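Quarterly update from the structural biology core.
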Amino acid sequence: MFTGIVAAVGSIKSVAPLAGGADAGVRLEIDAGGLPLADVALGDSIAINGACMTVVEKTADAFAVDVSRESLNRTVGLDQPGEVNLEKALTLAERLGGHLVSGHVDGLGSVHAFEQVGESYKLVVDAPHELGKFLAYKGSVVVNGVSLTVNSVEDVAADGAAAACCRFSINLIPHTIAVTTLKHLHAGARVNLEIDLIARYVERMLGAAKA
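Predicted structure, tokenized:
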């Protein structure tokens, strides 16, 4: 489990195909940035842009993970060199500064708008229509591994070539911009989304009750 509070911005230094042909995944070599690795062991979990991955190699300031083809197909930002948000798995001795995050990406969103408003930034994301029921005003959502609060939600109907979606907005304070990779977003960029864990279970329980 994670909290969605980014601990460091690292960078993918290399992407190497794993043996197994077209269906194989890749091994990522990641510079940990300022993420302390002294307490990280092989087999531990680290969230990379919101996707939980297992450490398979480690040095003092870098680590490697193997990403399956399934994970590559369902995420963005894990298939090429570049900056990534990093967070080690939560321990019971830590503060839960964000919200409970599993590190399992539920879908890909598309940035509708990203603009500065005063000292902060307004991020508007189009989420897949099927995730809309999990998004609520002042609820929680994870974007590229960052726990954020939803400021508005709007269900948008299909329009010509554009599919139906759920459009939500977020206010990003200067600190969040400074310490995460969200500063690099732009209209049209794709992002990893994870909906609130509690909302997921509530929807399941209500659906089972109706059945």
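The radius of gyration is 17 Å.
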